Amino acid sequence: MKLGEHCKNTLKLKADIEFFVYQSDIFNASCYPPDDNKLYIILSSGILERFSKEELTFVVGHEIGHVLFEHFDYPVRQILDEGENHLAPIHAMKLYAWNRNAEISADRAGLLCCQDFEAVGRTFFKLSSGVTTDSLDFQLNAYIEQFVDLEEVLNDANHDPSDWYSSHPFSPLRIKALELFNKSETYAEFNPNITGEITEEAMEVEIKRIMSLMEPENLDDESEHSEKIQRLMFLGGYLISNADGVVDDSEIQALSSIVAPKIFANCMMTIKGLTEDEMIDEVKQLTKDLDIVLSVMQKLNILRDLSIISYADGEIDDSEINVLHNLARLLYINTDFIDRVISDAQGVN
């Protein structure tokens, strides 16, 4: 494929590219470097048939970017699978954060290849919606513009940012990060049509700031509501662990990794005298107190982190999911978010 040669030359890839296509209507792409001199790029027939040349160029460039940035040296899925009982939830959370940042780096390689930010937007939209008709171009542009000012989006009580928690196939944070790169002096060096409105330093500072929205809560935070948040996370995590009737040592260890040591010690002392119903009543009161002070994003972060705890041992059963759903309802978050986070995390590759 000519676009493969184009991407290879643009990104100064030394390895030869070989394309493989498999039958599937699902839009998907992946890559695998068997050695330093060869790179396999695997495309589904669906993505090959229904994506434009520019869109495919972004996809292929993105996959090559993973190789050039040596992301395969850190196999996230393998680390999570093999870690199971030995990987603390807080470390699992950091691996998912690393994965989100890896996608942003690879996106830059894709844009360098296709040189068309609008084509990138169409690519994300197609991957997300499955809709490929060109008649939706106008709506797509309007959709992208919704995320130009993330501060405005965060302050919009009617906006549901739950989709932001997917690294694949679509995330508004990825669109925003790439939009900043598209305006940068760094990218202008490679694309003469770009004026370079912001410096590289300013770009990286802003991207780091918006990505921090997705990071686990700071356990050392001594803000007014921090203790209540951590108490809620401990009790929520304990109820999840106890869903099967037994809380083992590995689950206690997992709980110790998501709250500050002082909070953990206090929680361990106080729960000894509490029944499960009393814990549930306290969780209800905590969520009621915190509902008016927590942003939607903070609520989603709490639920995401508790979801990660639920399958830190490599398994999750219906009783644990039921507890997570109940916690989501108490925070006025759609339970679909829980299902999505669990599904996405289990499918990280």
From TrEMBL:
UniProt key word DNA repair: no
Residue ranges of every copy of the Peptidase M48 domain listed in the record: 13-72, 95-179
Cofactor note text: Binds 1 zinc ion per subunit.
Main location: membrane
UniProt xrefs under InterPro entries: DjlA_N, HtpX_protease, Peptidase_M48, TerB-like
Protein keywords: Cell membrane, Hydrolase, Membrane, Metal-binding, Metalloprotease, Protease, Transmembrane, Transmembrane helix, Zinc
Entry's Gene Ontology molecular function annotations: metal ion binding; metalloendopeptidase activity
Cofactor or coenzyme needed: Zn(2+)
Record carries keyword Nucleus: no
Protein name: Zn-dependent protease
GO BP of this protein: proteolysis
Co-chaperone DjlA N-terminal domain boundaries: 239-336
Species for this entry: Algibacter lectus
Membrane topology: Multi-pass membrane protein
Family: Belongs to the peptidase M48 family.
CC annotations in GO: plasma membrane
Protein's cellular compartments: Cell membrane
